[in-house]
Write a structure and sequence with these properties.
This protein has 521 residues and is an alpha+beta fold. Helix content is 27%, strand content 20%. Among the domains are: 154-270, Ubiquitin-like (UB roll) (Roll); 286-360, Phosphatidylinositol 3-kinase Catalytic Subunit, Chain A, domain 1 (Ubiquitin-like (UB roll)); 384-422 and 435-518, PH-domain like (Roll). Strand 10 and strand 11 form a beta hairpin. The longest helix has 20 residues, at 32-51. It is found in: Cell membrane; Cytoplasm, Perinuclear region; Early endosome membrane; Endoplasmic reticulum membrane.
Length: 521
C-alpha cells in the first residue's frame, strides 16, 4: 500500500474502506485536502506521461489506474436489501456442523444386547407368559332408520292422517294460521287436563278439515274413548272458556271455511251422543230458565247451592261480547214476581224457583212488547245476541291519496277485522300497495257514525278507535245506505255492551276539541 503512488486509487480505497464502518465521517475530513488538489495533480500527471520524463516510474505504462475515479464505486462492495445479514464463511459453517454432530453423539449410547440363559423350564414360561388368543368381536352396523324402528315398535295407523296437512304448527312466522282451543266432550270429566286441546289450523281449512285435524291429534295422544271412523258423527259447537257447550246456537256448517268464524273456543261434540241441552229429562244437572229481551236461555247447574250471581255470570257469558265485570249491570227477578229484584247473594234453593227474568238495571222490561215479533230490519237496533255474533260485510275502504279498495269487514263481540280481498286486474287499486289486514279489539273502539248520505244510494261511515300509541285514529268505509245503517247499529250496540273507558276518553277529547275551536273563533 505504501509503494503505490497513484493518488486517485489511494483516495478511492480510503473512502471504500471506511464507507461501511465509519459513521462519524472522519475519513472524509482526512482526505479533504487531497480531493481539493486532485484536479490540478491529475493534469500534471497527464503532462508528465506525455513528456516521458519518468522512465523508471513503474506506473507510467500501467494503464489500469488511468480510469480510476476517486468517487467511483467499489467492486468489492455489492448492494443488497439484506443490510443486517452477513454470509458466513464455509469454515464457520463446517465447524458448527462438527460441533452439532459431537453433541448429538454424546446423547446416544450404544448397548449390545445379549440373551442371558434362563433358569426356568419352557413349560413354566408358557404357563406364566403364555400367548393369549384375542377374539375380534364382530361389528354390527345399524342405520339410523333401523335404530328408530327398534326404539319405536309397530304403532297403530292413524286413520285421520290425511288431515295432518291442515296442521299450522310448522308454518314459519305464524302467518295464515288460526289458533283455537277445542273442548273434547267425550273425554271423562275425571281428567280435566286432557279435555282441552290446543289446535293450530291453516286458514284454507274448512270446518270438516278442522274436525279431522282434531281427531288426528286425539288419536296421536292416545285419548279414550276411541273415536268413530266417520267424521260426520262429530260436529263443532260454540262453547264457553270453561268448556260449557252453548246449545242455544247450532253447530258450525262443515262446508264453511274456518276463517269465516272468529271463535277462539269450540267444542267437539258427538252427534249421536245425548247432549246436555238443558231439557227436563237431564238427570245430573238442574235446569234454570232465564228470560230476557233477547229470548230465553236454559242453563244447567250442578247443585241448588249455587248463588244467583254465579247463574247471572253464566247467563251473561252466553251473550258473546259481554264482560260480567264491566259494562251495564243486570238484575234477576222471579218470573212469578216481576218487578222485584232479587239479592244476587241468595242461593238457588232459597228462591224456590227455577224460572227467572234478567233485566238491565234502570231500564224497562220490553220483552213483552209486540215489536219484538216484527221482522228485523237494518235500521232497527239489532237484538243483543245477533249483534255480538260474528258477521262479515263486503264494503269499500276509503283512502286519502288513492282509490277505494274493496275489503271484508268482520264484526263480532270481541273484535273487528278488516281483511283485504282479491282485486280485479283492471281496477286502479291493483297498481297501489296491497291493503294490510287489520284487527281492532272491541275494547279499543271509541265511536262509529254515518258521515255522509249520497243521492246515489250509498253512504259513508267512520270507525274511530284508539291505537296502541294511545292516539285516536279512524277508518272510512262506503257501502249501501241500508247496509251502512245495519253496520253502524251493530257496532254501536257492541259499544253500549262494552262500556269501555276508551269511549269515555273519546267523548271528553271531542268535547275539548270543539271547545277549543269555538274559543279560537
Amino acid at each position: 500500500m505504501a509503494l503505490l503512488d497513484d493518488p486517485a486509487f489511494i483516495i478511492a480505497h480510503i473512502r471504500h474502506s471506511f464507507i461501511t464502518s465509519d459513521d462519524t465521517g472522519m475519513c472524509e475530513m482526512a482526505i479533504m485536502n487531497e480531493e481539493l488538489d486532485w484536479p490540478q495533480k491529475k493534469k500534471e500527471m497527464e503532462e508528465k506521461r506525455k513528456s516521458n520524463k519518468a522512465q523508471f516510474d513503474s506506473f507510467d505504462n500501467d494503464q489500469g489506474y488511468d480510469d480510476v475515479e476517486i468517487y467511483g464505486e467499489s467492486y468489492e462492495i455489492e448492494s443488497s436489501f439484506d443490510y443486517s445479514f452477513r454470509h458466513r464463511s464455509n469454515t464457520a459453517v463446517r465447524l458448527d456442523k462438527l460441533r452439532h454432530d459431537r453433541m448429538t453423539q454424546t446423547q446416544c449410547q450404544r448397548i449390545k444386547w445379549k440373551e442371558e440363559a434362563s433358569d426356568f423350564p419352557e413349560e413354566e414360561l408358557e404357563d406364566l407368559f403364555g400367548k393369549k388368543e384375542v377374539k375380534e368381536k364382530p361389528k354390527i352396523l345399524k342405520s339410523s332408520l333401523s335404530i328408530q324402528l327398534e326404539r319405536f315398535p309397530d304403532q297403530a295407523t292413524n286413520i285421520f292422517a290425511e288431515y295432518a296437512n291442515f296442521d299450522g304448527k310448522g308454518h314459519a312466522g305464524g302467518g295464515g294460521v288460526k289458533r283455537i282451543e277445542i273442548f273434547l266432550t267425550m273425554v271423562e270429566p275425571t281428567i280435566p287436563d286432557r279435555r282441552f286441546l290446543k289446535v293450530v289450523v291453516t286458514n284454507n281449512a274448512k270446518v270438516q278439515d278442522l274436525i279431522g285435524l282434531i281427531c288426528w291429534h286425539y288419536v296421536n295422544k292416545g285419548l279414550q274413548p276411541e273415536l268413530k271412523e266417520n267424521l260426520e258423527s262429530y260436529c263443532l259447537m260454540i262453547s264457553e272458556e270453561d268448556g260449557e257447550v252453548d246449545t242455544d246456537f247450532p253447530a258450525l256448517d262443515s262446508r264453511e271455511a274456518i276463517s269465516k268464524f272468529g271463535f277462539n273456543t269450540l267444542a267437539l261434540v258427538e252427534k249421536d251422543a245425548p247432549e246436555d241441552d238443558g231439557k227436563p229429562g237431564s238427570k245430573d244437572n238442574i235446569i234454570v230458565t232465564i228470560k230476557s229481551s233477547d229470548g230465553e236461555s236454559r242453563l244447567a247447574v250442578d247443585s241448588t247451592q249455587i248463588t244467583l250471581r254465579q247463574i247471572l255470570t253464566k247467563a251473561l257469558r252466553k251473550r258473546k261480547g259481554i264482560i260480567p265485570t264491566a259494562g251495564p249491570h243486570y238484575l234477576l227477578e222471579k218470573k212469578s214476581a216481576p218487578g222485584v229484584p232479587l239479592d244476587l247473594d241468595l242461593k238457588l234453593c232459597e228462591t224456590e224457583s227455577m224460572d227467572f227474568i234478567m233485566v238491565r238495571e234502570h231500564s224497562r222490561r220490553d220483552y213483552l212488547k209486540s215489536d219484538r215479533t216484527r221482522p228485523y230490519s237494518g235500521d232497527r237496533e239489532p237484538p243483543l245476541v245477533l249483534s255480538t255474533q260474528y258477521r262479515s260485510f263486503r264494503v269499500s275502504m276509503l283512502h286519502k291519496l288513492r282509490p277505494a279498495t274493496e275489503i271484508q269487514l268482520g264484526i263480532s263481540g270481541d273484535k273487528i277485522e278488516i281483511d283485504p280481498v282479491a282485486q280485479p286486474r283492471n281496477t286502479p287499486a291493483k297498481f297501489w300497495g296491497k291493503q294490510k289486514a287489520v284487527s281492532i279489539e272491541s275494547d279499543r273502539l271509541a265511536f262509529c257514525n254515518i258521515t255522509d248520505d249520497k243521492p246515489s244510494g250509498k253512504s259513508t261511515f267512520r270507525l274511530t278507535f284508539k291505537s296502541p300509541n294511545h292516539e285516536f285514529k279512524h277508518y272510512d268505509f262506503e257501502t249501501g245506505t241500508n247496509l251502512t245503517k245495519q253496520i253502524v247499529n251493530r257496532i254501536n250496540h257492541i259499544l253500549e255492551l262494552r262500556a269501555s273507558s276508551v269511549r269515555n276518553d273519546y267523548t271528553l277529547w271531542r268535547e275539548r276539541r270543539h271547545s277549543r275551536k269555538a274559543h279560537d273563533k
